[in-house]
User: Fold these one by one.
Assistant:
Number 1:
Amino acid sequence: MAITPVSKLVADAEQDIETWSVDQVKARLSDNTVQLVDIRDVRELWQEGTIPGAFHAPRGLLEFWVDPESPYAKDIFQQHKTFVLFCGSGWRSALAAKALKDMGLENVVHIKGGYTAWSRSGGDTVVVTPKT
């Protein structure tokens, strides 16, 4: 059995989802109908920080938090907003955006290049510290 490379899965997902550049995201930061969603592992947030105002939704829980019928549903995902997903490099967020689109969420995009591209562009970041 041949394994499909993850790079192909990401490329296929990106054919079916909307991708925003860092500049497109920066231009929409003041839009209260846009919600940034950091899907990275919490340890990545502790090590690297995050984008101010981003909601943290770990990749492993995302579908459960989005589904209004799930016992784990989060109110933030029940609002009419455009959800802008990001991860470290844009691969996980592309796959996550595709999964959410497949669930029926139409207002989901992801950031090309992820948090790495954001940071390299000089985008604002905030420190995230572990909760004690």
Note: The CA atoms of residues 51 and 125 lie 5 Å apart.
Number 2:
Amino acid sequence: MITALSNARIVTANDIVLGTVTMQDGVIIDIHEGITRQAAIDMEGDYLIPGIVDIHTDNLERHYFPRPNIDWNPASASIAHDGVCIANGVTTVFDSLSLGAWSNGTVRAVDNLRRLVAGLNTARDAGALRADHRIHWRCELPSPSLPELLDEFLPEPTAGLASLMDHTPGQRQYKNLDYFLDRNWRGQMSETEVAARLDERRTDQANNVDSNRSLLGEMAAQLGLVLAAHDDETAEHVAAAHAAGAVIAEFPVTLEAAAEARRLGMITIMGGPNLIRGGSYSGNVSAAELASEGLLDGFASDYVPRSLVECAFRLVDDAHGWLLPQAVATVTHAPAQAAGLNDRGQLASGLRADILRVNIASGLPIVRSVWVAGERVG
């Protein structure tokens, strides 16, 4: 069936065209200027942009554990999470699940990982997921158990991306050690216990990071998974990740790390909430600063799927001064290219028909309709 969307402001790679998009069999077959009135859906002058590609979101976990120690049916949680994604224009989503994490131990325990993967697959097989869901394995390099976890989980057929993580307190995301300890450990244990736990984390880091990084790089290459660096702080961090095969610099925490990633040809992805909230919640480099320095390529939602559509339109504000096609590309084309998905991320003939209808109301982008592979799903 041929579907035409007309009287739209179509955001292409380099322009905004008042015209018509035509799609058939899940693919865009034509984009042209001018309004087609016969057998076309009137977009009433709203924007048409590509479906958003989110390569890192922790949102599934909050639906699986909606309150502490209360777990939800994982297939049902997957459906609820998918609904949030579609409502906010995310048509391709990499659900981030952690291997070897020492924080959030209950939700990230091995049995729960197995249940979440099974739940995602059950919901997908039932046709209950409207977005294209894949798995992003967040791999905690200091973990002594990571090799066994990689053997079990990394070959999951729906996996498309893995990232090199090191959340040892006192560096990277948690370089402000006192800030981390005050928010997490102090008040829950004595100073002696804090010191013992910190020593344990640092010992794990010293003993396991280098070997686990090499192992993950080798396995990702064998399995065809895209590899990302995460929360890099120094040029040395970036170089080590790049040497292991990382092509994405995800959430660098300093200007130095972002500059080194650019020098090495990596794609730099920042968290959407960083831009929308006006900075990093933990005091690291801001997405706005990277944008102004020409070091920002794209965004991932991190923990707020809604942030991405807002990023696309926030960057055109006077404070940033981006053109809309380039701003939209930060949440569509750039993350799609980073993840190796060359069939989507732009509105162009021959590409997958993942399309959003967006209206601006009171300064906020409102997703009015969503098409995934040419089928209206929202």
Note: The longest strand covers residues 2-11.
Number 3:
Amino acid sequence: MKRSDTSDSHPLRERHPARSVTLAWILASAYTLLIVYASLQPLLGWRLPPAEVLRFLTAPWPHYITLEDLLINTAAYVPLGFLLALALSPRRPALRAVLAAAALGALLSLTMEAIQMFLPKRIASNVDLLTNSVGGLFGAMAAPLLSPAGFPGRRLAAWRRQLFVPGTIADTGLVLGGLWLFTHLHPTAQLFGTGNLRSTFDLPVYLIHTPGRLLSAEAVIVFFNLVGLGLLIAGFTRHAAPPLRIITAVVGTGLLVKTVAAVVLFGAPGPLVWLTPGVALGLTAGALVLYPLVRMPYLPKMITALICLCGAVAVINFAPDNPYQTVPPKLIPGSTTHLLRFSNIVRALSELWPFLVIGFLLAAAGTGRSSAPHGVDRTPGAG
């Protein structure tokens, strides 16, 4: 009997009910850890606060606060409120899920502000608490609109079913691919420059800068990451979907985010400051190699993506520093702008993203190996 949809044989197709730990809870927990990591940087110099821990709650309104500060602090907690409301909604009415998610977001913000009283380089603020809480509430209120029962949610669910294979594992891979877009908001990272832990852990510089080494390092980093990201996305597309078009759309969106953030948020001298010769070489070589690789079966895709991302992390941490890279004035420690806190969250995401994907690929490759029919994966078209 002829199958009506070849995607039914995909190794990641779920044949059992979803587990109790939903994807929304996993993502909400991950974003909570991201906020904690960003809120407590640098994790050095702990001390006893000079007075009671919660005295910042009654502090007067600061004179240096700006509309930009308020909007950025609000936006930082919108994803958390959204994810918490999605995670809570299956067992609660929509209103209760929204209120509970907003309360959890406010509690996290209060905890972070209180802990910052123990860090001399961080400033606890009641304004931050207020704006974070409002952001969590806004995110929670948006969750019912984007649920499968709402109009936008129905359209998104239909689009997702049309292009990608079903299942929680595929959902997680697509979310990780979407998070890659937000890593481009990190102003001091090169294009695809995720996983750089040198400044965070004060790692030594292994190679002295030369123009040739910098060009080669940028090209290799972009090449490995482009191939790894592309295969990650292609691994979850339906057999009838065009993976190359989807990959091109995702990468193009990432380049647009990088361009807009450089000019609007950080005042870069030009919109294409990220487009260095090394980056251009890496993009060209990666696209040429990615074209035939998307035709591979699922398991080789996952293994190749894993190897590429591991290689990219190794290269970026051993490569010479770029002496021509400068930190935007808004992000210099001690500045009064709250853009610094937003940058800490983005920086944490940029540093952790490849490690999250590497761990996910290890699990996804194992799942594909054990559940593929007769141990054979079908090969999707390149589209």
Note: The chain has a mean pLDDT of 79.
